């Protein structure tokens, strides 16, 4: 049976305790299938970052259930001990800023995670060059990070997120600093990568330029999600 890449049920997150407690997630449900790119949209303070951090096993939910690829990761508590390995091997992160390592060249920025996962340096660099080629920055593979434009750096950060072939990528405002053309190019690449690697991609965004491109959108308001079919406009 085909398993969802991400499935969460009634996920809750409370920050703090007592009178000052904040219920950031009040019972969130979400399902994302392999190869899908879904949008996560909502006003400031609605819980988007909190949900993304829970999905990325960066913070611990307070209650609920979460499975990745059919494996139960959280069921009222963490169900696995080694969250660091889970994050390294099964979840790719793309942020608003690329956060590349300035003293490594472009190839090694992408090859680093596979190397840390135990893949030989030669194999990791080969994989990095293939990904950079797929993302149309292959010609910058030997360059220093500082020599790249903002859009090129963001594409390198997407290559890095894909470098361990994770089943899930979490992207937090990945197009915010980019102009319209480059933002749509990043979305096109995310869609291609989702299809090619059957990766499930969740994109948190306020970006009006890219919202019409999603086939499915989760709106989050006051700590709860509401699903909507998107326009899925071709880019
Ligand atoms: N570490 C924290 N401690 C206490 N409250 C927090 C913490 N982080 C977030 N919150 C609160 O949880 C709620 C949801 O915050 P979150 O950052 O998830 O929202 P968001 O939708 O990502 O907002 P934005 O679009 O402004 O980044 C807000 O009320 C916020 O003040």
UniProtKB/TrEMBL annotation:
Q: PROSITE patterns this protein is in? A: ABC_TRANSPORTER_1, ABC_TRANSPORTER_2
Query: Which keywords annotate this record?
Result: ATP-binding, Cell membrane, Membrane, Nucleotide-binding, Transport
Q: Which InterPro entries match?
A: AAA+_ATPase (IPR003593), ABC_transporter-like_ATP-bd (IPR003439), ABC_transporter-like_CS (IPR017871), ABC_transpr_LolD-like (IPR015854), MacB-like_ATP-bd (IPR017911), P-loop_NTPase (IPR027417)
Q: Which GO terms describe its cellular component?
A: plasma membrane
Identify the residues that the record assigns to the ABC transporter domain, covering every copy: 6-235
- Give the superkingdom in one word: Bacteria
The GO molecular function terms of this record are: ATP binding; ATP hydrolysis activity; transmembrane transporter activity
Q: Report the protein name in the record.
A: ABC transporter related protein
Q: In which organism is this protein found? A: Sideroxydans lithotrophicus (strain ES-1)
Q: What is the lineage of its organism?
A: Bacteria, Pseudomonadati, Pseudomonadota, Betaproteobacteria, Nitrosomonadales
């Amino acid at each position: 049976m085909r398993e969802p890449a991400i499935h969460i049920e009634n996920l809750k997150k409370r920050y703090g305790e007592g009178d000052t407690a904040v219920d950031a997630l009040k019972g969130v449900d979400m399902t994302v299938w392999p190869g899908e790119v879904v949008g996560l949209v909502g006003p400031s303070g609605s819980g988007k970052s909190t949900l993304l951090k829970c999905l990325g096993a960066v913070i611990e939910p307070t209650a609920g259930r979460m499975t990745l690829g059919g494996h139960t990761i959280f069921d009222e508590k963490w169900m696995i001990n080694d969250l660091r390995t889970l994050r390294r091997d099964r979840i790719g992160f793309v942020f608003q800023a690329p956060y590349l390592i300035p003293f490594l060249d472009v190839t090694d920025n992408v090859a680093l995670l596979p190397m840390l996962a135990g893949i030989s340096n030669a194999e990791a660099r080969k994989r990095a060059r293939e990904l950079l080629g797929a993302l149309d920055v292959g010609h910058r593979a030997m360059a220093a990070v500082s020599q790249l434009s903002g859009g090129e750096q963001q594409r390198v950060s997407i290559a890095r997120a894909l470098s361990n072939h994770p089943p899930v990528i979490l992207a937090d405002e990945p197009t915010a600093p980019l102009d319209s053309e480059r933002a749509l190019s990043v979305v096109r690449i995310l869609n291609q990568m989702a299809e090619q690697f059957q990766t499930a991609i969740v994109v948190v965004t306020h970006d009006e330029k890219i919202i019409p491109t999603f086939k499915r959108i989760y709106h989050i308001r006051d700590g709860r999600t509401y699903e909507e079919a998107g326009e899925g406009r071709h880019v």
